[in-house]
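Reviewers of the previous submission asked for a worked example of the structure-prediction workflow described in the proposal, so we include one complete record here. The input consisted solely of the amino acid sequence. No template or homolog information was supplied to the procedure at any stage.
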Amino acid sequence: MSYPAPAPARLDLSQLGEPVYLGSVQHLYAVPDHPAYIVCETTPAGSVFDVGSIFSIAGNDLNRAIFRHAMYTRLTQPGTWTRVQSALLKEDKLGTTWRDQLMDGPLQTMLETGAHTHHVGMLDGETGDVATSGMPTTPSCYNVVRRFPVMKPPQRNVMGNFVFDYAQFHQSNTYVVPLEYIVRFGVTSGSSILRKYEALSEKERRAFEQELGLTSPMQAWQMLDRPIYDLTSKYEPEDRAVSKQEALLMSGLSSQHFTDTIKMALLGAWAVRDLLDEIGLQLWDLKWEFAVDQEELLFVDTIDADSFRATSTVSVDETNLIIHYNKQAMRDYYRLVCADWYAGINAAKAEAQKLGTPFKQVLKEGQAAGTYPITPEVDASFLDLQARKTALIKSHVLGEKDADAIRAGLVETGLAEAEFYRSRGLLADLLKLNGI
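From that input alone, the workflow returned the following structure tokens.
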């Protein structure tokens, strides 16, 4: 592993200047005199359906930054992986062969030294000191991370068909792997993988089940005997599901390193589940990203409610209703409350794929021309409910309340969300989507 220059121990936020990157949910700043590092500022903005920042949740900037710092700190601690190992050994349904394969390799290293990550620490909002372990006295929205090259594959025209060229990844030793790794402990009703499955023929479904390692037909709100994973493109205009074979070729990694990233994604999912289990949240899926540096693999990018799907169950009108404590709640809001706009989004994506034009460009031009509905404002009371959810999770991470009190608060907020839909005549649609 090629170690960069020492990370900054203290930073003056007033000296950061303008962001070098303005993202949909975070801004990135160069660090004066420390070119090997980046400061990440989380924002309260939210993004769904690859549209960009279209809503804002009060306090979510700090809440997300805190979760990220806490989780990445956990990943570097051998004790985290000791708990993961214990959880794996207790899971009888995993199958001995599959479990042995998962426990061989990266886990053995992480049990001794913890995982490698790009995360350095969080800036104290008052002093500017970088807390590398534990929370700073004044938590902030600023985390310091190691900087890795981000390479975007150029789009090529091959006899009228558009493809992405990943040759540069095979010529580099240090970079962010151009894939998102999605780990699924179960299948939710809003899962993209379920929509894909339902569109297949019976023969195609059997092949898909075999590829994912399923032991029975896929259905909504199904917890799996063992987690599955699927892979999508990261640096194309919109996420695209890819096969394992294509993902290996896109990654630029050796087959061994590619296998290790898959194992790390699965093991990291158990580490997050361990944290959420304590407050009664059930983890369904999450996504990871990785970087490679010579022979070392590192967890990178964000880990927060934008990158995992966790739920609890509440009883509404004699039906068990799944409540989402992540941005799936926002996806469902747009689908149910803003159905015309959601249909326009899907139409714009189809048009962009046909034209070989970036989706956001097609959408923007179509909205200006009146082809697609303009992006709606989210009801303030609904956004307040989402703010309450993330604030409760933050309280758990900080140890501000005991787990039982936080669990009760999460359930109370979930019931209030059901009443929001009832007041708008949409509870039946919500129960159809998330009822079990």
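DSSP finds 14 helices and 18 strands in the chain. We consider this example representative of the routine output the project will generate in years two and three.
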